[in-house]
């Protein structure tokens, strides 16, 4: 039977109401009384009462002992994490990182924000005898690094400001917002960042954003491109940049990201 023919054929009112309740509570972190949920959904208390009680019994809703307000319980988050690739950013990224390192002949690493710093949570070393890679657990300067500026660029304004303030507090510095705004504008226009490493000779950092199912940036995937003096690297920098672009798109897809 054609998919179009199935559309609208079946109805499950109780299931529809259950998801309406969950979606309504998702907008109310302070919780809501059954009567308030009913009003928001334009339904009667009688329609929702048994469904809410069952959701509570199953562990998907939590009822406050003091206010009788219902909130979404962490069991729903746990289920989502266990049931989707988004449950583990590293597991989603490593297969693509392994392919990238093998085909590009360059190492790569995955960076996430951690307070006011960047944190390397995964790396893949290129299979040859010469290479450059950061260690897992390494902390990086999220304000000045290639990876950090990519994360800041593609974060929403509020999140980026929180990261910058945390960096200022942790390192006792004052970030030049005007300079950072100019850098962000350039990276946003390009869709990635690339610049000579400020630390290591012969290395050019190339970094692209990784997005999650909610369209928020979750990490930066970076290649510290090591250019050998004799030019014997198997793939040029432009080609590696294209490979990295493809790899990050695939990781984002594994995480459920759908571009607008």
What are the salient characteristics of this protein?
Beta-Lactamase, 8 strands, 2 domains, 10 helices, six-stranded antiparallel sheet, elongated, two-stranded antiparallel sheet, Arc Repressor Mutant, subunit A, disordered N terminus, 18% strand, 260 residues, alpha+beta
Report on this model:
With 260 residues, the protein is of the alpha+beta class. 47% of the residues lie in helices and 18% in strands. It folds into 2 domains: 3-80, Orthogonal Bundle (Arc Repressor Mutant, subunit A); 84-254, Beta-Lactamase. It has 10 helices and 8 strands. The strands form 2 sheets. A 6-stranded antiparallel β-sheet has the order 5-4-3-8-7-6, sandwiched between helices. It is elongated. The model is unreliable at 1-6 (pLDDT under 50).
List the helices and strands and how they pair.
Elements: H1 3-6, H2 13-26, H3 34-41, H4 45-57, E1 61-63, E2 70-72, H5 74-83, H6 89-104, E3 108-114, E4 117-124, E5 139-140, H7 146-154, H8 157-171, H9 177-190, E6 193-196, E7 203-211, E8 217-226, H10 237-254
Antiparallel strand pairs: 1-2, 3-4, 3-8, 4-5, 6-7, 7-8
Helix pairs in contact: 2-4, 3-4, 6-10, 7-8, 7-9
Give me the CATH architecture of the largest domain, please.
2-Layer Sandwich
Number of domains: 2
SS-derived structural category: alpha+beta
Radius of gyration, whole Å: 23 Å
CATH C-level name of the largest domain: Alpha Beta
Give the CATH H-level superfamily of the largest domain: GAF domain
For the termini, the CA-CA separation is 31 Å
Uncertain residue ranges: 1-6
Number of strands: 8
């Amino acid at each position: 039977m054609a998919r179009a023919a199935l559309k609208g054929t079946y109805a499950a009112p109780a299931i529809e109401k259950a998801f309406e309740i969950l979606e309504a509570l998702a907008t109310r972190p302070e919780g809501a009384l059954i009567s308030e949920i009913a009003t928001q959904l334009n339904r009667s208390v009688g329609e929702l009462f048994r469904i809410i009680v069952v959701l509570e019994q199953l562990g998907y809703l939590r009822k406050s002992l003091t206010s009788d307000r219902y909130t979404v319980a962490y069991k729903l988050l746990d289920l989502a994490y266990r049931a989707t690739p988004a449950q583990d950013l590293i597991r989603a990224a490593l297969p693509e990182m392994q392919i990238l390192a093998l085909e590009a002949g360059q190492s790569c690493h995955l960076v996430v924000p951690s307070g006011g710093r960047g944190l390397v949570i995964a790396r893949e070393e290129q299979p040859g005898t010469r290479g450059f890679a950061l260690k897992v657990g390494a902390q990086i300067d999220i304000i000045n690094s290639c990876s950090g500026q990519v994360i800041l660029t593609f974060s929403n304004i509020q999140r980026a400001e929180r990261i910058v303030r945390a960096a200022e507090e942790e390192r006792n510095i004052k970030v030049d917002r005007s300079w950072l705004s100019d850098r962000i504008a350039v990276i946003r226009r390009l869709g990635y960042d690339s610049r000579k490493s400020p630390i290591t000779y012969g290395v050019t950092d190339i970094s692209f954003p990784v997005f999650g199912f909610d369209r928020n940036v979750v990490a930066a995937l970076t290649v510290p491109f090591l250019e050998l003096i004799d030019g014997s690297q198997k793939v040029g920098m432009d080609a590696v940049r294209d490979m990295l672009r493809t790899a990050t798109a695939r990781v984002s897809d594994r995480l459920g990201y759908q571009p607008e």
